[in-house]
User: Fold this.
Amino acid sequence: TPTHDQDKPIEDPVSAKQVSTLAQNCQDFGLTHYGILSPDNGIVHVVGPEKGLSLPGMTIVCGDSHTSTHGAMGAVAFGIGTSEVEMVMASQCILQQKPKTMRISINGTLGKGVTAKDVALYLISQLTTSGATGYFVEYSGDVVKALSMEGRLTLCNLSIEMGARGGLIAPDDVTFNYIKGREYAPKGDEWDKAVAYWQSLKSDDDAVFDKEITFRGEDIEPRITYGTNPGMGIGITQNLPTTPSAGRGSYEKALQYMGFKAGEKLLGKPVDYVFLGACTNGRIEDFRAFASIVKGRKKADGVIAWLVPGSWAVDKQIREEGLDRVLQDAGFEIRQPGCSACLAMNDDKVPAGKLCVSTSNRNFEGRQGPGSRTILASPLTAAAAAVTGVITDPRTLL
Assistant:
């Protein structure tokens, strides 16, 4: 769907047919449908939690790999294929092999300017994009417990990028406070019963996992990717590796595609595009973070910035909090909600050869448009690039 002029017919005939067919199917079979321009419309992984549809203890599946996002609610959530979607719609059942279990504990505290997105990119760089293949991951530790609900959603969203079937976080008071009062959340006595049950949804103290890994929050700085998969990442002040940890051929090919050289720093590299949004970082907290950097500053000349809320509810809150004025004063425009430049399925495409600092979740070749070059980063790092015109350590602007 487009992120501008959504009140007009969709120009691309294939996209228009897909949207209209889905809407008609929902009408024919009595399914709730949040269509374009509905105040409830948005990316499924943003709308589900914010409506209170995604709740602890649920099993949630969706025809999208980043369904792992909902694991932040204490749900077992994972992506499935089209034929599996048909089976679930018909039977409410799905046949699965039991995955192995992994617990990733992140203890200590995060430093200034380090966000959940940086934590996720750090984990992927340490484990690689296949390090959690075959596992369902539980995130725990001091750092995870201290994350906001939005931060937890970001962390679980990226579970699939290290190969995991899904990721989850045990529900706690942060979860319950986020859910309470939302449209589909339990009410009255049912709320008290639900919380009592949800509090039991945690691993036992003596639980045994197939694999356990522990990291220190103090070891994580703002992160950026440099290659063509999310595991190719570095701390923003670091140099690119001179010796790849695995796959020299793919490493050299990735650097060639990105136009970078082994051993160099990326700080100061000119940026053409900045994208804030996606199911990874399209929530209100992400727009607050972006606004905190650009407030009192101006968008750099020559940088094209797409700021795309993950839902109309996020858009509404942006305006209620006055963030729209902060962003507009700095030279930024808020587009209409959608997936946008995450996967270039609408007009929001990064041209060939152009470099985009993006808050999305994948930096594959051509992901944001044929020949596009993508650096994954947090909303703070994206904002820093947007106002300086180059890759910048956001801590210098905080």
Notes: The mean pLDDT is 97. The chain has three domains: 13-91, 100-219, 223-396. The CA atoms of residues 10 and 16 lie 5 Å apart.
